[in-house]
Amino acid sequence: MTTATESAASDVLDRARARLERAEAARAGIGGVRAPFTRANVLVPFNEIGIELANVASECSLMAEVHPDPLVRAAADTAIQELSAFGTRLGQDRPVYDALSGIDGATLDPLARRVVELARRDMRRTGIELSAADQERVRTVRAELVKVEQEFAKNIRDDVSEVALDPAQLEGLPADYVAAHPADAAGKVHVTTNYPDLIPFMTYAKDEAARRELTVVNGLRAVPQNIRLLEVMLEKRAELATLLGYRSWAEYASEDKMTGSAGAIQTFLDRALATCRESAAAEYADLLAEKRAERPGADVIGTWDTAYLLERVKARKYSYDGRELRPYFEYRAVRQAILDLASELFGLTFTKVEMPLWHASVETFAVSVDGRAMGHISLDMHPRDGKFKHAACFTLVPGFKDRSKPHGVLVCNFPDPNGQQGPALMQHSEVVTYFHEFGHLVHGIVSGDIEWARARRPTEWDFIEAPSQFLEEWIYDYEVLRRFAKHVETGAVIPEVLVNKLREARDFGRGTHVQRQLMLSAIALRLHDRDPHGLDTTKVVFDASREFSPIVMPEGTAMQASFGHLEGYTALYYTYMWSLVIAKDMHSAFTKGLMDLELAKRYRDRVLAPGGTKPAAQLVQEFLGRPYGFDAFKDWLAPRG
Fold first, then answer.
1. What is the total count of domains within the chain?
2. 15-51, pLDDT tens digit by residue?
3. Range of the domain at 30
4. Model confidence pTM above 0.90
5. Which of 212, 293, 450, 456 has the fewest Cβ atoms within 10 Å of its own Cβ atom?
């Protein structure tokens, strides 16, 4: 007898295979077309293929990361493998390529011409011009690579580590955190590497040895298995790049991005590092002085110290204590505030609906844009076994004009109001993350009415983080915070003086944060811009760490094993800083304040709604009225007095 779980797994795989069969039929149909090649007999059926593939990728990529049952996650992984194999075959299909090339561009509107150009470029990057033998090797290596990447991601999802501490080692933690971590029968408290445990502990725990112990445990997640898998990933990516005619995977991965080359990425990293170096050095001096105040003679700051010391310096310089903010950021209130803000800024309306999905904790809302029904969003926001361990926006259903409404899904790991003692209070940094990820969600909803599958997402991946980082700014604005940030016990509105302290204190640590992000960007680039055979990935990590920052990582760790972006972003982790440059420049347009609703709607319509129908630089230029620049980012990083 088939169990409910087996049935659910079968359903996921059956839906995916039915879509792939329809895509195969459309592909075969294009192969049988004879000239004249037109929009109707080539481009429309090609778009049908894209729609079917987007549906498979969306549902199965999400299920592989969030479904509570491993059988369903495994079925989704199988579907992704089959999808990848089909996509590679499609990219090497000469009749399809010739048919697309044979369409008279003069008969197409500009967007349709753009779709053809992008599709042909995609096919060249899949090996359409290679020999039959090399094409076969590309198919083999891609299939092998997908499996390795899936296993790498699975190992990160499945590895939750912990430390067992004496209750006294929770000194400095907020009262609600201590209450949520009672001692076991042996008198020990357990702190895990899940974010609701990890982030507050690293920020407030006074016990340096305990912070270091948790840092080491976190830095050994998925070790040693993911070290070897990473080596295999790098070797297979390098082989693919070579087969396709590129010097390295970094060159291949960057070719169709805004940067255009690995050299341009390096130039950007050098420029950004030079820009943050002065402020980071000044911050380091303050951090070291703070550590010496507790430990005279200390001469090393470790990664286990950074968050704690940043908080201590902010308290000394700005009378800021992040623990004072926590009672104002109860999870449910934060969620509602984000919905309300998106409604006001972007003309969205959210109506909660009952929709049985993969887990009972998932909340779903119907969304309308300017009163027009536009799809759904779902929020899967709390940790559980086997679930994605970071924060990201996924798609359950992609939106296409006159075909389907988008259904986006936020997947995060925030405190669960139903899973702990006392209120689910959030760090301000977690609230910033919530706003960040919701920026992705808004982007997906308002761009969900595009006809062409190839133009649905932003064309250049290194622009993808700009809309999300753009929305982070609002969570520092008092006029925004006063609407929802109320004390969980007294109901009092957050004091303006506390928000002012937050705004003053946030300046401290920017240089340190950017320095670390650039270090991670350099690690991702360096792992992919050289011969991977015999490459010591841990040495690459520690060399970059020493080069970019005096803050040391604990010896014996291997953070690359749980650096999940190496599976998805590969060489392109610089995307976060590149996108931040653009986001800061777009912020500069809000000269009348962040609640300038007219400008917010302009941003929605000029930057978000077009999706990938235009190059990212053009979208930003149409919003700003000029090309984006570096000055706003430079001003943001300038040392404060």
1. 3
2. 999 999 999 999 999 999 999 999 999 999 999 999 9
3. 4-129
4. yes
5. 293
